[in-house]
Amino acid sequence: MDHIIHQLKQSLDDDFLSKPERKSLSQALEDQFLDTNQITFLRTKVFELANEKVNDKNYRFILEWIKDASNVLSNYPLEKSKSDDSYFSPGDHCRNAIVQHLNLAKKRLKICVFTISDDIITEAILRAKRRGVDVMVLTDNDKSFDLGSDIEKLSKAGISVKMDQTSDHMHHKFMIVDTDAVLSGSYNWTRSAARFNHENVVVMKEEGVVKSFMSEFDKLWSEMSDY
Q: Which of 85, 142, 178, 180 is an active site residue?
């Protein structure tokens, strides 16, 4: 959430939350997967930041800033974290769903995808690693050394990576978040999938489905070779 707080601070430089700043803040929120406590913390932060900046001359402007910032936070759809959902591309919806769930992970991520070359997704994986999440990645050898592939970058960051070395393809595209949810679908984790392709991601939280995907991941992990 640090970059969201940074945006709030920046918007206070001129005592005014402009329309582009509101749009940017909304987009930053969409890229997260925040719970009620986190949103409450951000609302409290709005008042703390305003209190640090307010004076006799800008009082009315700061009040308006508080109102606008609070409205942006109030529009964050907390209910989306509680139910299964489906997302489609082209566009950012599939990518945002993946990033949001990467941000949600607390203990473990099991990622099983044909290829990873989208820097936005890669950075979210690295953030998860930095905050102590155990990240495991299964991928296909044919794509891992393509120009733009981020597999080597993930491996160098200390993430456990295994790959299919057979003549066939490991063509899965799924991710298990802790033991709570599975994201799966046709969507490749590439920039072109977001920009051009007609793809889908489905979020599933039914316990039996999650266990089934975990079993498949563990089976493949035992069969595949280290990167």
A: 178
What are the structure tokens assigned to 92, written together? 């950012």
- Would you call 150 a catalytic residue per the annotation? no
Query: Which stretch of DSSP H or E encloses residue 214?
Result: helix 207-223
| Residue at token pair 């889908």 | 200
pLDDT category of residue 77 using cuts at 50, 70 and 90: low
Q: How many CA atoms does the CB half-sphere of 43 hold within 13 Å?
A: 15
The domain made up of 87-226 has a fold known as: Endonuclease; Chain A (3.30.870)
Q: Please name every residue paired with 181 in a beta bridge, in sequence order, or none if there are none.
A: 177
pLDDT at 146: 72
Beta strand ranges found along the chain (DSSP E): 85-89, 108-113, 134-140, 160-164, 173-177, 181-184, 199-204, 225-226
CB 201 within 8 A of CB 97: yes
Say how far apart CA 82 and CA 97 lie, in whole Å.
Answer: 13
Q: Which of 215, 119, 223 is nearest to 163 (CA)?
A: 223
pTM above the 0.70 mark?
A: no
Of 23, 67, 171, 211, the active-site residue reads 171
104 closest CA partner among 46, 208, 182: 182
Task: Name the average pLDDT for the chain.
Answer: 90
